[in-house]
Design goal:
The complex is a heterodimer.
Chain A: E1 9-10, E2 15-16, E3 21-22, E4 27-28, E5 33-34, E6 39-40, E7 45-46, E8 49-52, E9 57-58, E10 63-66, E11 79-82, E12 87-88, E13 93-95, E14 104-107, E15 112-113, E16 118-119, E17 124-125, E18 130-131, E19 136-137, E20 142-143, E21 148-149, E22 154-155, E23 160-161, E24 166-167, E25 172-173, E26 181-184, E27 189-193, H1 195-200, H2 205-214
Parallel strand pairs in A: 1-4, 2-5, 3-6, 4-7, 5-8, 6-9, 7-10, 8-11, 9-12, 10-13, 11-14, 12-15, 13-16, 14-17, 15-18, 16-19, 17-20, 18-21, 19-22, 20-23, 21-24, 22-25, 24-26
Antiparallel strand pairs in A: 26-27
Chain B: H1 2-10, H2 15-27
Helix pairs in contact in B: 1-2
The chains are: A mainly beta, B mainly alpha.
Chain lengths: 215, 36
């Protein structure tokens, strides 16, 4: 079975494991590295200094590693680094970092990124997160592990989202969202703690009680 | 903050959760603040 569709344009300098699958009409640039088992759908553009780990599923029509939407960017070889076992649905845009920050936009492992998500330059996303459709992160945003962002959540630049927190659909964040907190609204207000999420992740009754006490 | 620290001392099983919260709050710049 051919793993690379004949219509895919893959730069000879790109480093792809022999088990990587690439769909029709996808373009992959010279500084891209893709590890074993990762599947790239059709009509994707992967460019810049972009690294994808193992067993990721990148659906059709994604743009990974394009230059930042930042006027100060001047062509520096900054990076996009993606871990393992992520699912990235259609029409997502993940940009590389900028030299004025860490120079790296990063996504950890085991994340489920639904369609139309934007990760701007220098965002740092942990692992085991879920971003529902149309979640938009501005530059420099940090998202810790196990966060769930509801559909159409918008996060202002430099904000931080704490582990195990949860946003409702259409939440608008201008401030940091502490760990465990559920929020809703424009701008978002804290509504409760993410007790259901904590239960599902095996938090004991006592730990949940303490989290409740921190509210 | 003091109340949160107290919770951590009273319940060692949840000490790390309390620590995570305190570290997060300490790193939040005053001009941005937190979702309340």
């Amino acid at each position: 079975m051919t793993l690379i569709h004949p219509s895919a344009l893959i730069d000879p300098k790109a480093q792809l494991d022999s088990s990587v699958q690439v769909g029709a009409y996808t373009t992959i640039g010279p500084h891209v590295r893709i590890a074993a088992g990762t599947r790239i759908g059709s009509h994707c553009v992967i460019e810049g200094h972009t690294t994808l780990g193992e067993n990721n599923q990148v659906f059709q029509f994604n743009s990974l590693g394009a230059v930042p939407q930042d006027k100060k960017y001047a062509g520096e070889p900054t990076e996009l680094v993606i871990g393992d076992r992520n699912v990235i649905r259609e029409f997502c845009t993940f940009n590389i970092g900028t030299a004025l920050d860490r120079g790296v936009t990063s996504l950890g492992s085991d994340n489920w990124i639904m369609a139309y998500v934007h990760l701007a330059h220098d965002c740092q996303v942990g692992s085991h997160t879920i971003f529902a459709n149309n979640t938009q992160l501005a530059g420099h945003v940090q998202v810790q592990d196990w966060v769930i962002l509801g559909g159409f959540t918008v996060v202002h630049q430099f904000c931080r989202i704490g582990a195990h927190s949860f946003t409702s659909m259409n939440a608008l964040l201008f401030a940091d969202l502490p760990p465990f907190v559920m929020c809703q609204g424009q701008p978002a207000n804290a509504r409760s703690m993410n007790f259901e999420g904590l239960k599902r992740r095996g938090f004991s009754a006592l730990r949940i009680k303490v989290v409740k006490g921190m509210h | 903050m003091l109340r949160i620290e107290q919770l951590g001392r009273e319940h060692p099983e949840a000490e790390q959760d309390v620590k995570d919260m305190l570290v997060f709050l300490a790193q939040t710049p005053n001009d941005r603040g937190i979702v309340r």
